[in-house]
Amino acid sequence: MCDRHNKDKDCFVYVESGLPHVPVSCRVNGDIVHRKVDPTMTLLQFLTTELKLFGTKEGCGEGECGACTINMNGKAVNSCLILAVEAQGSELLTVEGLSKDGEMSTLQKQFIEHDALQCGFCTPGMLMSANALLMHNPDPTAEEVKEAIAGNFCRCTGYFPIVDAILATAKLEKEGSKDE
Fold first, then answer.
1. Contact, 58 vs 68, CB < 8 A?
2. DSSP string covering 72-108, please?
3. First vs last Cα of the chain: how many Å apart?
4. Closest to 148 (Cα-Cα) out of 134, 165, 169, 158
5. From residue 39, how far is each of 42, 63, 87 by CA, in Å?
6. What is the pLDDT of residues 20-58, one digit of tens each?
7. What CA–CA distance (Å, rounded) separates 177 from 1?
8. pLDDT tens digits for 85-98?
9. pTM of the predicted model, to two decimals?
């Protein structure tokens, strides 16, 4: 447990199982990563402790809330349910990988424009679920958006602004592709 009042305590310490480490190689946000990890380490723990990518959040640790959602080989997955060793050879995209050259993605901009984020805790997972949807279905209906984010819980927005932001992103990207 993290004690925020104790400056000597690291909130992102992984407790080793004692088993021999296993090599893992994957691509994370476009960069090839090679590490030796504890075979019981989850993908979420790998991202935060090994790669220091803190955008992906741990909510429930049981795959129920969607806060830890990332894209693995183009699909939205709960990183708390996947072992790091299972990512061997995979292409991973986290919320940090959505922006390019310091420029937010259209999806991120639309979340801001539509007030689709309140406290922000669910936002990275929502963005990654939406990103996976839009990669495979660039022109979704509202029902398809709702289905895609069904595994992501938000206690602040009421979901309407989130759905609106995703639909607006699809529309903008569709209009942008016509201009090319």
1. yes
2. ETTEEEETTSSBGGGGTT-EEE-GGGTSBTTBPPHHH
3. 51
4. 134
5. 8, 19, 11
6. 999 999 999 999 999 999 999 999 999 999 999 999 999
7. 47
8. 999 999 999 999 99
9. 0.89
CB 107 within 8 A of CB 131: yes
**How many other C-beta atoms can be found within 10 angstroms of the C-beta atom of residue 56?**
23
Among residues 107, 157, 109, 112, which one has the least CA distance to residue 133? 107
Q: Which two tokens stand for residue 159?
A: 């979901």
Q: Which residue has the tokens 């995703």?
A: 166
Cβ atoms of 66 and 25 closer than 8 Å:
no
Residues paired with 123 in a beta bridge: none
Reported for 12-19, long-range contacts at CB under 8 A and 24+ positions apart, including other chains, are 12/48, 12/49, 12/54, 13/49, 14/38, 14/41, 14/45, 14/49
Closest CA to 166 of 118, 124, 130: 130
